[in-house]
């Protein structure tokens, strides 16, 4: 099938469109890159001649990231700018490299490194000479080459300059080498590619656009693929997108019916020659538009036919896909942003200091130049006879001018270039301390902490805001059934011999499930009373577990070993079904009409009459089943706030008791669901089911009618109890969050997950507490609604008479935000802000983001839910720009890359979601809890060490350099030096380098030693020994014989040091210099002790005191009534199951005549995927249907 004709776009080839068709969305460009959240924005000009199209094409400025490779598009070469063109559509032909190579599409190789062999030298030198000091020393070197003004030879400057540039270049090259190494690890992954009619293993980087790839279960997707076929019925496959959007629930993708017939037939796949015409590469994760032409027919493509790079294939044995976008064109890499050159605040301060010191140097030079002019005019005439000068040959003014430049050269050591060498050495040492820290080593996976850059260590000690992902960063992505409440009794608690509630210890033995078949090996439950109730035949307990076994959308299959494997769409359902399975109620299999379970060893088949699917408005799901005895029951589970309104009045007492239990569960950070059922009359159900069939066949208000029928039958429920599932936090998260909060560091959670889930984790981490004064929830759907909600929240926070600006005047942002620190002091109490992604999109607009930032900065905790990767980066940039605060972003998935690159410090978690976040990060480790040590130990020490090093360094160099200033008054301002040139050259880089390096690398804060350690002795006495060694060597006869012009002072040291007065002067000078410092420190410790002094005194006192008594187990208090509901589920799976499209053909079991009829479900995949956000319009709860 040929591509669309010339003059047509892929959208106009099949469908009539208006002449100008524009699609745009709110955009923001960060760091020169196109952000997530933009749509392809351009004008499609159709039915124009090539000449008119070339003249009239207008392309939106914001789409400049989509580059048109050189080559023709449908016979027309489109020039969109003088230098670069824009790719407005992509044409790919399957299994045809020659055809696709015409368009010069990018291959699948990725690059996160900054340099190549050819570009390293020019780019690195350009970056290094951006430092003011390097440019300053280059200018000094040029001045030293002028003999009329130079008192020092050129090597005194060029040697240190070349040394520092070389060391910095080596360090940068080493950092980039590891980036290349990480890139190679990804690029060299293996994938099965269809080449020459057979599958061959090929490296990822060699995969080309148009190739057909085979993926197997649990494999990462190598590129953006068009799904062709899979092992599942109807071409279905399941993918986990946690690395892209942070959601743990599985997503379903379905191949076109015409391609799903290809199956795994290699010969037919090799003959597949379909042509895909689609949108250009962009970073919109949830949108795709395209057209497949094959066998004289055309098929539209959407996002549900595409598998993106970064996804993981789950619950699917194999699938085949055609590469559409590869490498940098994939949506994953389009979201990665550009690697930025990060500098610390100390680097920026150093640039400012160098300018100030240079100004100070000019002042000294002017003073000495004026002194020289005065001296030459008044006294200099007396010396001209000895200097063989003729009268009037050299004026005093000109002499002062030359002297000015001479002193600029001589006094340049006030900022020696060795300062930057020493800083790089110190930073390198601090980086190795991080890499070698055993307390940041994760032994379970043998993952050490890694400082991937060596230039940002001291910035770790100045962090004010932390932006954290949730899934995989705070949590482990593991759901565990912890407790339940059945008929007013809590199961899952552990009690001691006195009946008091205690925490689980290693000595406590869990329930033994080994006697049961098909149990989950990793499941543990420590309350034996639940098993006792099951064995005693408690009907409520049996009904509770029966509900968990029947009310879900889980699929089951047996592996080759005969073990039962569950394919779960959400981890919550997996935890509940697995728990019921271990307690003897095993979900075995299902068809579109039946569910087969095993109840305490007895197989039972239930007729599945209807599934009332979950959505984010209903917040519940129900199933209607008929047991073998003919009883029809409705089983329902969902949010307690919703389900409790549907209960029969007779449940009042049980409702009160269960509410208390739910509050206790919520107070412990557990995710809760309420459980209820209803017995249905046979006649009533038939009438209701007939009305449901009519509603499904309706063409108008179909969804509203179905929702009304759901509301009608889900009433008068009988409460059974509630479940409590733990979304397992990573170890030490609570303690880490608490410690960082005590350090006055604010933590914002930015997640793509649902609001309820994010809030639940907020409570589990103690970021949100029931003691907070207020929690503001921003959920407006328009800019006006968001602005109004922000205004009301600010009124509640500041009071009704707040005089703070609403921030509508953009030009006043910075002035107002400068007052935020003052405003924070006026706010009393703890507040939290929770905002959804769709509301955040409006809040980030120019006239609203001032209000958002002001309110957010007043709150102790901020949680942003359902946010895109672009919005994560925008929030970070907002705080960086207007708060002028040092920020840190931490995450573990590819959806966190843009946030990590935008923050001052980026930290990657080496977790379960691939290596994208680690590759883009500045620091990486395996667990969130290590962040506490990284900031509060390594960051704090690095910052204080660097500050003390700078103070020490400037002190010794000012003392060293100002000697020349005072000596100028004694040498007639003649720019003569007190020291010889070798002493000036070696003073900083050899003689005094070790003591300052020792302090900068090894100095400790709270445990600062009051005595000399081995390191002190080595560096102090070693420096003195080096000085005398070099001194005697330079004054020796041997070196004079080799270099008589460079070392003319033979024997000076030997003769001078034999004089007793010399040693007396050295001793008196040392004592006179040290005694004031010792006296000052003694008085300061005694009168004004620092925090370090107080800690040292406390440690001494603790050694004398008896050990502290062991801490009692900490139990969390029961919170006030709040819902702990959180359910990671997606709407549409009920319709998928009842359609039967995800099930392999089996012999259907006998039915009872009440089986439901299969109403039209051809659009189940669209219904499944169009309701994946929290923005579903609410349905009236009182709209019911009377029977």
- Biggest pleated-sheet summary: 9 strands, mixed
Shape: elongated
Averaged pLDDT: 78
- Rg calc: 37 Å
- State the helical fraction: 25-40%
Low-confidence stretches: 1-84, 800-822, 1108-1120, 1147-1166, 1168-1187
Q: Identify the quaternary structure here.
A: single chain
According to DSSP, the number of beta strands is 39
β content, as a range?
Answer: 15-25%
Keywords: ATP-binding, Lipid transport, Magnesium, Membrane, Metal-binding, Nucleotide-binding, Translocase, Transmembrane, Transmembrane helix, Transport
Membrane topology: Multi-pass membrane protein
Subcellular location: Endomembrane system; Membrane
GO biological process, one term: phospholipid translocation
Key descriptive features of the protein:
1187 residues; alpha+beta; 9-stranded mixed β-sheet; 9-stranded antiparallel β-sheet; 40% helix; 17% strand; disordered N terminus; disordered C terminus
Secondary-structure blueprint:
Elements lengths: L19 E3 L6 E2 L2 E2 L8 E3 L4 H7 L33 E4 L3 H5 L18 H9 L3 H13 L10 H33 L2 E6 L2 E6 L8 E5 L7 E7 L5 E5 L1 H4 L5 E4 L2 H4 L5 H6 L3 E4 L11 E5 L2 E5 L4 E2 L4 E3 L3 E8 L5 H4 L10 H34 L5 H4 L8 H15 L7 H18 L14 E2 L13 E4 L6 E12 L2 E3 L2 E2 L5 E2 L26 H7 L3 H12 L4 E4 L5 E4 L3 H12 L2 E6 L3 E6 L2 E11 L7 E7 L5 E7 L1 H4 L8 H16 L3 E10 L1 H16 L4 H12 L4 E12 L3 H10 L3 E5 L4 H10 L9 E5 L4 H16 L14 H5 L2 H7 L4 E6 H7 L5 H10 L2 E5 L3 H15 L3 E5 L5 H6 L2 E5 L6 H5 L2 E3 L4 H39 L12 H11 L1 H10 L11 H21 L2 H6 L9 H5 L3 H28 L3 H14 L28 H7 L24 H7 L17
Parallel strand pairs: 19-33, 19-37, 33-36, 34-35, 35-36, 37-38, 38-39
Antiparallel strand pairs: 1-4, 2-3, 5-12, 6-7, 6-8, 8-17, 9-15, 9-17, 10-11, 10-16, 12-13, 13-14, 18-39, 20-21, 20-32, 22-23, 24-25, 26-27, 27-28, 28-29, 29-30, 30-31, 31-32
């Amino acid at each position: 099938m040929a591509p669309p004709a010339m003059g047509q776009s892929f959208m106009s080839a099949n469908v009539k469109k208006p002449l100008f068709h524009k699609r745009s969305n709110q955009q923001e460009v960060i760091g020169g890159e196109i952000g997530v959240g933009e749509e392809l924005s351009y004008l499609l000009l159709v039915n124009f001649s090539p000449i008119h199209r070339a003249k009239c094409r207008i392309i939106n400025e914001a789409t400049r990231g989509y580059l048109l490779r050189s080559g023709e598009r449908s016979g027309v070469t489109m020039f969109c700018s003088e230098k670069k063109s824009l790719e407005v559509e992509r044409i790919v032909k399957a299994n045809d490299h020659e055809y696709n190579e015409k368009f010069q599409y990018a291959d699948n190789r990725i690059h996160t490194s900054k340099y190549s062999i050819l570009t390293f030298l020019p780019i690195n030198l350009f970056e290094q000479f951006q430092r003011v000091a390097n440019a300053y020393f280059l200018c000094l070197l040029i001045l030293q080459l002028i003999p009329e003004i130079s008192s020092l030879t050129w090597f005194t400057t060029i040697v240190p300059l070349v040394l520092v540039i070389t060391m910095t270049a080596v360090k940068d090259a080493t950092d980039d080498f590891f980036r290349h190494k990480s890139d190679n690890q990804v690029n060299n992954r293996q994938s099965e590619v269809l080449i020459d009619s057979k599958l061959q293993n090929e490296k990822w980087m060699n995969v080309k656009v148009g190739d057909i790839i085979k993926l197997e279960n649990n494999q990462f997707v190598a590129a953006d693929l068009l799904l062709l076929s899979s092992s599942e019925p109807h071409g279905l496959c399941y993918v986990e997108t946690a690395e892209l959007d942070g959601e743990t629930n599985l997503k379903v993708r379905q191949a076109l019916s015409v391609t799903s017939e290809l199956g795994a037939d290699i010969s037919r796949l090799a003959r597949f020659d379909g042509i895909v015409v689609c949108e250009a590469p962009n970073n919109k994760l949830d949108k795709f538009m395209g057209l497949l032409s094959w066998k004289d027919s055309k098929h539209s493509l959407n996002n549900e036919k595409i598998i993106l790079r970064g996804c993981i294939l789950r619950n699917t044995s194999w699938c085949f896909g055609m590469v559409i976008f590869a490498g940098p064109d994939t949506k994953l890499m389009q979201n990665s942003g550009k690697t930025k050159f990060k500098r610390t605040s100390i680097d920026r301060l150093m640039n400012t200091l160098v300018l100030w010191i240079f100004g100070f140097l000019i002042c000294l030079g002017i003073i000495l130049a004026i002194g020289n002019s005065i001296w030459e005019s008044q006294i200099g005439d007396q010396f001209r006879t000895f200097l063989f000068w003729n009268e009037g040959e050299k004026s005093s003014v000109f002499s002062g001018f030359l002297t000015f430049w001479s002193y600029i050269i001589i006094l340049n050591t006030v900022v020696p270039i060795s300062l930057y060498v020493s800083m790089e050495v110190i930073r390198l040492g601090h980086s190795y301390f991080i890499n070698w820290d055993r307390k940041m080593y994760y032994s379970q996976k043998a993952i050490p902490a890694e400082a991937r850059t060596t230039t940002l260590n001291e910035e770790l000690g100045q962090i004010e805001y932390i932006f954290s992902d949730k899934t995989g960063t705070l949590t482990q992505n593991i759901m565990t059934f912890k407790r339940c409440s059945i008929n007013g009794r809590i199961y899952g608690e552990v009690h001691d011999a006195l009946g008091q509630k205690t925490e689980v210890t290693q000595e406590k033995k869990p329930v033994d499930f080994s006697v049961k078949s098909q149990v989950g090996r990793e499941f543990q439950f420590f309350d034996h009373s639940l098993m006792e109730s099951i064995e005693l035949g408690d009907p409520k307990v049996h009904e509770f577990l029966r509900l968990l076994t029947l009310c879900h959308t889980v699929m089951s299959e047996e592996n080759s070993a005969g073990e039962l494997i569950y394919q779960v769409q959400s981890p919550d359902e997996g935890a509940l079904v697995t728990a019921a399975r271990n307690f003897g109620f095993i979900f075995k299999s299902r068809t579109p009409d039946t569910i087969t379970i095993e109840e305490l060893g007895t197989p039972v088949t239930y007729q599945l009459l209807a599934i009332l699917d979950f959505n984010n408005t209903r917040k519940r799901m129900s199933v209607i089943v008929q047991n073998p005895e003919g009883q029809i029951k409705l089983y329902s589970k969902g949010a307690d706030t919703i389900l409790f309104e549907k209960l029969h009045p007779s449940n009042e007492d049980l409702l009160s008791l269960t509410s208390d239990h739910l509050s206790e569960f919520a107070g412990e950070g557990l995710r809760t669901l309420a459980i209820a059922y209803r017995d249905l009359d046979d006649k009533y159900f038939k009438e209701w089911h007939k009305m449901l069939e009519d509603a499904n066949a309706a063409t108008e208000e179909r969804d509203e009618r179905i929702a009304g029928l759901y509301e009608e039958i889900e009433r008068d429920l009988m409460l059974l109890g509630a479940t409590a599932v733990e979304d397992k936090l990573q170890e030490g998260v609570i303690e880490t969050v608490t410690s960082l909060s005590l350090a006055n560091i604010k933590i914002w959670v930015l997640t793509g997950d649902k609001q309820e889930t994010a809030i639940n984790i907020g409570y589990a981490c103690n970021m949100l507490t029931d003691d907070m004064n207020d929690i503001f929830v921003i959920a407006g759907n328009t800019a006006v609604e968001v602005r109004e909600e922000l205004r009301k929240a600010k009124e509640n926070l500041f009071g009704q008479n707040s005089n703070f600006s609403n921030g509508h005047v953009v030009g006043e942002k910075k002035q107002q935000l400068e007052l935020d620190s003052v405003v924070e002091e006026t706010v009393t109490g703890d507040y939290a802000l929770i905002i959804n992604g769709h509301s955040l999109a409006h809040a980030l607009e120019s006239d609203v983001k001032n209000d958002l930032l002001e309110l957010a900065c007043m709150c102790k905790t901020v949680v942003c839910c359902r946010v895109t990767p672009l919005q994560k980066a925008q929030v970070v940039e907002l705080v960086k720009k207007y708060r002028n605060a040092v920020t840190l972003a931490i995450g573990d998935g590819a959806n966190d890359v843009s946030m990590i690159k935008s923050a001052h410090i980026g930290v990657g978690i080496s977790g379960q979601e691939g290596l994208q976040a680690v590759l883009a990060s500045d620091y990486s480790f395996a667990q969130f809890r290590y962040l506490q040590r990284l900031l509060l130990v390594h960051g704090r020490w690095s910052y204080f060490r660097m500050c003390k090093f700078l103070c020490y360094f400037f002190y010794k160099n000012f003392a060293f350099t100002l000697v020349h200033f005072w000596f100028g008054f004694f040498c007639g301002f003649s720019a003569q030096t007190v020291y010889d040139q070798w002493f000036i050259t070696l003073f900083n880089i050899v003689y005094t380098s070790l003591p300052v390096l020792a302090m900068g690398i090894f100095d400790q804060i709270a445990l600062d030693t009051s005595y000399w350690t081995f390191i002190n002795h080595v560096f102090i006495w070693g420096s003195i020994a080096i000085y005398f060694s070099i001194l005697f060597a330079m004054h020796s006869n041997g070196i004079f014989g080799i270099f008589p012009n460079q070392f003319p002072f033979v024997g000076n040291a030997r003769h001078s040091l034999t004089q007793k007065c010399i040693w007396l002067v050295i001793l008196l000078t040392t004592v006179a210099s040290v005694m004031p410092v010792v006296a000052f420190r003694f008085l300061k410790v005694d009168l004004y002790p620092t925090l370090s002094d107080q800690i040292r005194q406390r440690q001494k006192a603790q050694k004398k005191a008896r050990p502290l008594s062991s801490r009692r187990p900490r139990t969390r208090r029961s919170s006030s009534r709040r819902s702990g509901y959180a359910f990671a589920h997606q709407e549409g799976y009920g319709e998928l199951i009842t359609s039967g499209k995800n099930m392999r053909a089996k012999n259907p079991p006998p039915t009872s005549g009440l089986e439901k009829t299969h109403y039209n479900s051809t659009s189940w995949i669209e219904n499944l995927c169009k309701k994946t956000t929290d923005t579903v319009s609410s349905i009236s709860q009182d709209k019911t249907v009377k029977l």
